Amino acid sequence: MYLADESYKSELKDNSDTSVVMKRTMFRFSRSVKVTLLFSAMAATSGVHGDVFSEDSILSNHSHYFPDCEYIKGDLICSQRPSDGDVLKVGCVGDSITAVGHTSSKMHQYPSQLQQMFDAKKGTGKYSVTNLGTCGTTLSDHGASPYWDSATYRALLSAKWDIIVVMLGTNDARDIGSGGPEHWPREQCDHATMDTLESCPFYTNYTKLLSIIKGLGNETGIAPEIHIMIPPALMEQGAYGMNQTIINTVLPRLIPLIGAANKIPVIDVYKGMGGVPAPAWTTELPPKCVLNSTWPPCRWYCDAQSCNPGQCHPNDVGCTHLAEVVYDGIVAQRAPNIY
């Protein structure tokens, strides 16, 4: 449904006081082994963003992303980034916002910049960050391009990890009324509460993924440190066939509930990247981000480096800021004596 559909907007009320404070668990870490896998390049990229994907010069340039994968004889081989010694292995699970954003190079993608921040602030060789993002993917296992079918998901399964951050949901917010395929389970998820979460498919898929990740720790019986993240705001209704109300109203309310139900800390990328709580975003956000916008957060989506379409994917400076938000979120959950 379009944002302009008042019947949809009026049903959604702000639960801005649904904040969740969660305790972290300290984990012991051991050295992990790099494992590679083969996956069909066609399967990894088919269905990505539908027709709009092929129209996006950055997202359609496969050589621009998959920094921790390589094509060999037509197949995509992905692996955990190699490292030596007792390095903490960090995996960034996500869609195109993680995989590439709207950056000018692989080094500008947020996981790459997160690596640079760890090196600069914690010392080179302490952390090793792997980009596990695949463009267009959904958390839903029956979307146009489920993350479950991606090469990066299989790379996730094939290795052991110390820290995993997950940011999915943006492509799940596509619907027919916004020009995309119908992904979002409106009736079950829009008004979900702690008592009704189990009826929401987005929750059940998220819980399934988290349960799998919990078994991927470096030491048997000890889960990796996991963080789930609220995706950035959508700056224009209908961009990439996405529903702005789902992304800006429903996900910021629903993902903290999922975190609480699974005892997983939440990093609020939505707020960190300039998102305004519902319902105020409907009047405070500009209709879309444009060059030289008077709304300061637009600079993270639209500048001379990239502003096409500039409504969903962070540009170079935006991915720098996104990496800072993720870094701060991870460090805030860690004891001072832990790297």
* Tally of helical segments: 12
Radius of gyration: 19 Å
Q: Identify low-pLDDT runs.
A: 1-8, 13-50
The portion of residues forming beta strands comes to: 5-15%
Number of strands: 8
Distance between the termini: 45 Å
Give me the secondary-structure category: alpha/beta
The biggest sheet, with number of strands, parallel, antiparallel or mixed sense and barrel status, is: 5 strands, parallel
Helix-strand topology string: HEHHEEEHHEHEHHEHEHHH
Question: What would you say this structure looks like, in words?
Answer:
The chain contains twelve helices and eight strands. It has 339 residues and is an alpha/beta fold. The strands form two sheets. It has a five-stranded parallel sheet, sandwiched between helices. Helix 5 (110-122) packs across helix 12 and helix 8 crosses helix 9 (244-262). 51% of the residues are buried.
Helices, strands, pairings?
Layout: H1 6-9, E1 36-40, H2 41-45, H3 51-54, E2 69-72, E3 75-79, E4 88-94, H4 96-99, H5 110-122, E5 127-133, H6 151-157, E6 163-167, H7 186-189, H8 201-213, E7 225-229, H9 244-262, E8 266-267, H10 269-272, H11 281-284, H12 316-332
Parallel strand pairs: 4-5, 4-6, 6-7, 7-8
Antiparallel strand pairs: 1-3, 2-3
